[in-house]
Amino acid sequence: xxxxxxxxxxxxxxxxxxxxxxxxxxxxxxxxxxxxxxxxxxxxxxxxxxxxxxxxxxxxxxxxxxxxxxxxxxxxxxxxxxxxxxxxxxxxxxxxxxxxxxxxxxxxxxxxxxxxxxxxxxxxxxxxxxxxxxxxxxxxxxxxxxxxxxxxxxxxxxxxxxxxxxxxxxxxxxxxxxxxxxxxxxxxxxxxxxxxxxxxxxxxxxxxxxxxxxxxxxxxxxxxxxxxxxxxxxxxxxxxxxxxxxxxxxxxxxxxxxxxxxxxxxxxxxxxxxxxxxxxxxxxxxxxxxxxxxxxxxxxxxxxxxxxxxxxxxxxxxxxxxxxxxxxxxxxxxxxxxxxxxxxxxxxxxxxxxxxxxxxxxxxxxxxxxxxxxxxxxxxxxxxxxxxxxxxxxxxxxxxxxxxxxxxxxxxx
Length: 413
Fold this sequence. Notes:
- The protein is about 35% helix and about 25% strand.
- The protein is an alpha+beta fold.
- The strands form two sheets. Strands 1, 2, 3, 4, 5, 6, 8 and 16 form an eight-stranded mixed sheet that branches. Strands 7-15-9-14-13-12-11-10 form an eight-stranded mixed sheet.
- Strand 12 (about 295-305) and strand 13 (about 310-315) form a beta hairpin.
- The longest helix is centred in the last third of the chain and has 22 residues, at about 390-410.
C-alpha cells in the first residue's frame, strides 16, 4: 500500500525537537543502559487525490520520516524486541472539530459540506497497515531473534472514549487483514497526560490553574520553602543527588513504584550538561529540590527541549506536607520551561479520568489542577515477528500481575 523503503542513518538535524523520546540524546542515553540504538530514514508513498485522502487513488505523495529504534535482549540473550517510542503519527491531517460539527447541522444529519471528512477513525485502516509495512521494512535490520516490534504511536485524542474507539478499530483491522497487530497489556509510556501551554504569559498560565493551586504556590513561598536548581555540571551534584535519591526511596516504598539505580539519574544529568558544554543542541536536564530550613521535602527531574518540557521523575518526603512544596516545585519548573522556549510542559502520566475510585485519583487532581490540556494516546502496540512472542507476552503479563497486584497486596497497598 505504501511502498516503504528504509535506510539506516547515523546523523539527524532533529537533535532537540519533536518528542524527547526520539532525540538522539535520549536514545543514546538509553543505549548506555542496556539498549541498542538504531536510527532510520523511512520513505513512503501515500495515496492521495486532489489533496484528499483516497486509498485507491492513482496519485501518490512522497513522505519521509525519521525514527529512532531501540533494541533490547532478554532471557539471557535468547530473545530480543525492538521498541519505537512516540512514532508514527497519523498519516493524514484531521478535519477541524468545528468543521465536523458544522457538517451535521440539520435534523436529518445530512453532510452539509462538500469535502472528505478526515478523523482518526477514518484512517485507522491506513494506520494499521502503515505500522505493519514499516515493521516488515525494518525486519532485516533487526536481530534474527527479535520477537516483535513495539510501538508507542504519537496519536492523541481529547477523550479516553475517542482513544478507545480508535484502538478497537485497530484490533478489528488487524484481525480482518491478518496484520498480527496486538495491543500490549502494559503500556511503556504513559498514555494519559496533561500539557500546560507555555505560549501564554505567566499571568495567563497562573489564571488557568485552579485557585487552590495558586494559593498553594503562594503559601509555599510565604512559609519559606526554597527551590534549589541543580545541573549535571554543578560541583554539588553528588550531594544533591543523594538528597533526591533518599526522597525517591521514601516515595518508592510509600507508593509501590520501581526506581532506577542512582547512577541512572546521575548519568542523565551529567550527559546533558556535558553535551551542552560541548556546544551540542540537546535537551537540558535539571534537578529541582524543595527545601525548608534543613529539611528536603520534595524533588523533580525535568527535561527541556525546543518542543516540549517533561516532568520526568518526582518524589516527596512524608514530612511537612502542609507546606505544599510540590506546588512550588512545579511552578518553578514551568516558569523555567517557558523561559527556555518550550511550547508546552508535559506532566507525563496520570489516570485517564476523574474517577474517585481510581487508586491514583489524587495524582489526577494534582496534575490537572495546573490548568493543562488533557491528552490520551493510543498506548503500546506490538507487531508479532515470531511465534514465541505469545509465550513471552504471557510471561510479561504474569510479571506485571505479580508486581502490580500481588506484591502491593502483600505490602498492604
